[in-house]
């Protein structure tokens, strides 16, 4: 016999303290790690339909506690080698809440709310007593007593023992129990009744028991253990440190909403199950375990299943602990092999024999089983728990008769298992399922319990069956699954095709908006006309019926036009999402054998389309080929017949189980799908819209696009200008065919004078304006970079201002107008704006300038002479760093230092503008480099600006950038009012003050600014001295004129 070393003399035990069992240690861990979780908190609700005297009830609890000191248990774990427990005869005063003045529904609501709050109230396990008593008075003869306590104190077999004594003492006092008898019992020197073994005796036996054969037995029993069998969703469970740490053992934590559902078999059905058990030589408990095993096998498809079962463990040594109060239970795994050919009664007998073999070792801690099982650490041995008892608490106590018939008892508890099945072997078997709603929704739980009940009925009525012959589904559910839900026959027009159904949905009002994407709307007539043009264009490029055409377009109206155009040309489309990795796109192009690809100059680069001689792949670029596409006939589609059996599209699997495979989907498949969706969706022309979020490479996009259009609804495409992706280019197939132009974007640009601001809150205008712009749909907030002057002096660092704006907004763009790039190291610029990009969720963009004010260059005097060249050179550097490249720069001591920026920005590309006004060469250079332009009307007319924008667009197209692209932002002093005169009156003085602050800045270095140079063949001559000759009156007049 092995005796644990803990039995050696321990000073703590002289104080009446003794250790915890492993089950209690696991519960203690949970209480301390999650004190407010409500797990393993027991609540017994006693409904007492008779008068209750609070004083007598308190005396009854006090008297019970003297006889059952387990009620006063507390725990100590700090400053001792191992946790200890101690008993004491103490109970708290009863808290009384009078709800008698409220109507019944309000009473129930208040009690229910109390129970939820009460469960979440933690106990201090080192401060006895560990119970709370709350009495609700609902009426003269209607009371609710709530007894709340941690499960670590006692198990379920203890509950009726305590309640019999408490309410028995209350009844005795209430019925006039002889006072002298009670006094004699409590008198000093009275002979106490014979002592029965205590819970402390059990713990001492537990520690001294022979554990020599436990490990060998359990290693053999657990050999090849299948792991937990689940009927749940939501991913695998995990357990905490030490393996057990649970109210019942090694469960995972799950703290979401909890629900219970129950049902009761009839007495006749229960009688049949008992007869089955008698014939097989097993108990009703084993029959219920067998049904749960079979159900788990049917749900999981596994031949071997595993779950947990609670064992009473009240046989220990030579004692029987039936009337003792304490925590005796243990949780052990149940393994069951389910072979369909096995005969039911023989299989139940084998299951029972397995369970009997565990009895000599049923006290083994579950943490040891976890270690010996071979199941990976962190994975529980089981995910569901079965708790069986001979009767429900309410039934057990009602057996007392008399006044007990006027009492109801409800046990509310919560284990750490996501699914706990309770079985009560009464005359009519009661089944209760407690489950976490996050893992097992209400409807699924009700079906699960219904399937279990039906399986039990099958077992009772067909005891001679093989396992495979037992039905899990009731006849009505079986009929619903196999017949009703498959009764999907409906009349579909002969020859129906996808594009034909869409054309039917577009019929009617040709001006009705049917596709919207951002600011762009496409009418029904325009969609028909553009898709007809695309179909004819594809035919001229050699696309024939049955060919496959790849569509590699961003989400836009162009994408929808392309899909319908492919189908109208008799071909099938292959989705090629530009967001997919290039290697995957190239694989699909090569593997599918596409005849043509519809793309843009931007998206085609990632496809590696074989375009050489003999390759035979036609590339249609909607930006480059726009004119020829729009020149094709648009009145009607090509004159050809597409059969329902022909392909509509090919879609590739994810490749998660190997090489991606192309799945061919025919028109009739799509038509059937769309017709079937009419049973669950509804709509008609103008009656609604569908927000399409899904990539074209997923089948659900077929529903989003084609069901919506074919049913006359509006398709709203979610724009892909989300953080990290940058803004979308405009759709290309608009104009002649009838789309609406994109609305002009409006932004706010800040260039205030420092002197005009509240000294205590200088940035109020910026921050309040940013909030307004964010809420009202403005495109961006712009802040400049200005140094050493009141004019714009609030903004020496637009990155800092941008960070402040990012912190208080959620959608508006954050722009620098401008970063004077020659004043800064490009690494610093990239770093700062990457921070703002992260703070804003990918909303930044910067305009860069070469700088014009000589004084500013005290920050970098070496760059002044070649500032424009430095600007363009460093634009490239910033872009490279932004993309994640590591670059080398001169470091200390003449060595090169290689760096990359951190944090990594959210956007893949940094949107960059170039600030310019006077020089048309700068416009051309920006267009050539594919940059945007920020400009103003200071020193140039609208006509001159138009010429420069034309030069910008020409350079853009000549460099091969996407046709129709480019972006020009114009700064304008703007005030919105009723009419010109009223606006002038409002802005006159503020505008003059604003201009006055700029005069000193401009006049000192006017020659440095192109807009202030004389237009002659002579060398530039400063005009700034002209300002100095003006009197105050003349200056005011000049400002008034401006």
Structure description:
With 1042 residues, the chain is of the alpha/beta class. The chain has five domains: 17-172, 2-Layer Sandwich (Chloramphenicol Acetyltransferase); 214-233 and 257-389 and 416-482, Chloramphenicol Acetyltransferase, CATH 3.30.559; 498-717, ANL, N-terminal domain (Rossmann fold); 747-915, Alpha-Beta Barrel (TIM Barrel); 980-1013 and 1024-1041, no CATH class. The strands form nine sheets. A seven-stranded parallel sheet has the order 27-28-29-30-33-34-35. Strands 8-16-15-13-9-12 form a six-stranded mixed sheet. Helix 8 packs across helix 10 (344-357). The longest helix has 25 residues, at 980-1004. The model is unreliable at 1-9, 174-182, 234-254, 735-743, 1005-1009 and 1011-1024 (pLDDT under 50).
CATH class placement of the largest domain: Alpha Beta
Strand order of the largest sheet: 27-28-29-30-33-34-35
Total tally of structural domains: 5
Quaternary structure annotation = single chain
SS field, number of helical segments: 30
In the CATH hierarchy, the third-tier topology of the largest domain is known as Chloramphenicol Acetyltransferase
Could you tell me the number of beta strands? 35
Tell me which CATH architecture of the largest domain applies here.
2-Layer Sandwich
Shape: globular
């Amino acid at each position: 016999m092995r005796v644990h070393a803990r039995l050696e003399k321990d000073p703590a035990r002289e104080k009446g303290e003794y250790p915890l069992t492993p089950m209690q240690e696991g519960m203690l861990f949970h209480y301390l790690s999650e004190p407010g979780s409500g797990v393993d908190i027991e609540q017994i609700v006693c409904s007492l339909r008779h008068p209750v005297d609070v004083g007598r009830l308190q005396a009854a609890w006090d008297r019970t506690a003297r006889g059952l000191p387990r009620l006063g248990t507390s725990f100590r774990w700090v400053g001792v080698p191992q946790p200890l427990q101690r008993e004491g005869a103490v109970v708290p005063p009863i808290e009384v809440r009078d709800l008698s003045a409220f109507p019944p529904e309000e009473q129930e609501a208040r009690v229910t709310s109390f129970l939820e709050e009460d469960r979440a109230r933690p106990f201090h396990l080192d401060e006895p007593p560990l119970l709370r008593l709350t009495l609700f008075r609902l009426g003269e003869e209607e009371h609710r007593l709530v007894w709340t306590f941690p499960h670590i104190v006692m198990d379920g077999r203890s509950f009726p023992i305590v309640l019999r004594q408490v309410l028995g003492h209350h009844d005795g006092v209430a019925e006039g129990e002889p006072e002298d008898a009670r006094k004699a019992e409590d008198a000093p020197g009275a002979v106490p009744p014979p002592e029965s073994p205590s819970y402390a005796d059990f713990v001492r036996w537990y520690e001294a028991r022979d554990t020599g054969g436990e490990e060998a037995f359990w290693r053999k029993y657990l050999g090849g253990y299948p792991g937990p069998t689940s009927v749940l969703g939501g991913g695998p469970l995990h357990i905490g440190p030490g393996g057990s740490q649970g109210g019942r053992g090694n469960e995972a934590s799950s703290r979401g909403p909890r629900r219970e559902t129950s049902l009761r078999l009839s007495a006749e059905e229960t009688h049949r199950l008992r007869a089955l058990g008698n014939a097989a030589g097993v108990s009703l408990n084993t029959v219920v375990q067998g049904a749960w095993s079979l159900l788990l096998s049917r749900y999981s498809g596994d031949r071997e299943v595993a779950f947990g079962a609670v064992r009473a463990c009240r046989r220990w040594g030579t004692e029987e602990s039936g009337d003792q109060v304490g925590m005796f239970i243990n949780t052990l795994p149940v393994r069951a092999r389910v072979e369909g050919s096995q005969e039911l009664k023989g299989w139940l007998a084998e299951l029972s024999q397995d369970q009997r073999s565990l009895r000599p070792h049923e006290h083994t801690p579950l943490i040891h089983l976890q270690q010996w099982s071979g199941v990976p650490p962190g994975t529980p041995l089981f995910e569901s728990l079965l708790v069986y008892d001979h009767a429900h608490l309410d039934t057990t106590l009602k057996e007392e008769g008399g006044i007990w018939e006027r009492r109801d008892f409800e046990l509310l508890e919560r284990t750490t298992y996501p699914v706990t099945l309770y079985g009560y072997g009464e005359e009519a078997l009661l089944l209760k399922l407690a489950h976490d709603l996050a893992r097992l929704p209400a409807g699924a739980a009700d079906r699960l319990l219904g399937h279990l009940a039906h399986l039990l009925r099958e077992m009772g009525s067909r005891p001679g069956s093989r396992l495979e012959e037992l039905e899990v589904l009731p006849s009505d559910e079986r009929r619903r699954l196999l017949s009703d839900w498959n009764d999907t026959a409906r009349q579909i027009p002969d020859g129906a095709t996808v594009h034909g159904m869409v054309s039917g949905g577009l019929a009617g009002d040709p001006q009705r908006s049917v596709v919207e994407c951002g600011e762009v709307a496409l009418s029904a007539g325009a969609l028909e006309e553009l898709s007809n043009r695309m179909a004819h264009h594809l035919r001229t490029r050699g696309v024939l019926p049955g060919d496959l055409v790849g569509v590699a377009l961003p989400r836009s109206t162009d994408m929808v036009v392309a899909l319908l155009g492919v189908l109208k040309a008799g071909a099938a489309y292959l989705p090629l999402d530009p967001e997919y990795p290039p290697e995957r796109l190239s694989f699909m192009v090569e593997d599918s054998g596409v005849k043509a690809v519809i793309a843009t100059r931007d998206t085609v680069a990632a496809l590696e389309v074989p375009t050489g001689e003999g390759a035979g792949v036609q590339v249609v670029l909607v930006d480059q080929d726009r004119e020829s596409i729009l020149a094709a006939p648009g009145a009607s589609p090509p004159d050809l017949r597409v059969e329902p059996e022909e392909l509509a599209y090919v879609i590739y699997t994810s490749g998660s189980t190997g090489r991606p495979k192309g799945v061919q989907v025919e028109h009739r498949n799509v038509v059937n799908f769309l017709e079937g969706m009419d049973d669950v969706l509804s709509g008609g022309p103008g009656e609604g819209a569908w927000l399409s979020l899904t990539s074209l490479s997923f089948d659900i996009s077929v529903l989003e696009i084609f069901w919506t259009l074919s049913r006359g609804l509006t398709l709203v495409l979610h724009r892909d200008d989300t953080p990290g992706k940058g803004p979308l280019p405009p759709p290309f197939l608009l104009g002649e065919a009838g789309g609406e132009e994109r609305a002009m974007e409006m932004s706010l640009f800040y260039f205030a004078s420092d002197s005009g601001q509240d000294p205590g809150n200088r940035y109020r205008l910026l921050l309040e304006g940013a909030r307004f712009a964010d809420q009202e749909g403005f495109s961006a907030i712009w802040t400049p970079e200005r140094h050493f002057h009141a004019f714009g002096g609030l903004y020496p660092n637009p990155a800092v201002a941008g960070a402040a704006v990012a912190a208080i907004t959620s959608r508006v763009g954050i722009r620098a107008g401008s970063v004077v790039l020659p004043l800064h190291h490009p690494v610093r610029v990239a770093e700062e704006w990457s921070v703002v990009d992260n703070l804003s969720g990918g909303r930044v963009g910067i305009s860069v300038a070469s700088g014009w004010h000589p004084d500013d260059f005290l920050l970098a005097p070496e760059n002044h002479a070649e500032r424009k060249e430095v600007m363009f050179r460093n634009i490239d550097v910033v872009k490279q760093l932004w993309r994640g490249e590591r670059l080398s720069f001169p470091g200390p001591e003449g060595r090169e230092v290689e760096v990359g920026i951190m944090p990594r920005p959210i956007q893949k590309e940094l949107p960059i503008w170039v600030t310019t006004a006077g020089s048309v060469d700068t416009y051309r250079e920006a267009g050539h480099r594919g940059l945007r332009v920020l400009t103003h009307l200071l020193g140039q007319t609208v006509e001159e600006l138009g010429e420069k924008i034309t030069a910008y667009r020409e350079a853009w197209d000549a460099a091969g950038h996407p046709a129709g692209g480019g972006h020009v932002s114009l700064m304008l002093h703007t005030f919105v009012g009723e009419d010109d005169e009223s606006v002038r009156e409002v802005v006159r003085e503020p505008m003059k003050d604003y201009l006055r602050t700029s005069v000193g800045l401009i006049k000192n270095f006017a020659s440095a600014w192109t807009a202030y140079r004389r237009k002659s063949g002579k060398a530039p001559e400063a005009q700034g001295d002209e300002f100095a000759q003006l009197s105050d009156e003349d200056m005011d007049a000049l400002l008034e004129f401006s």
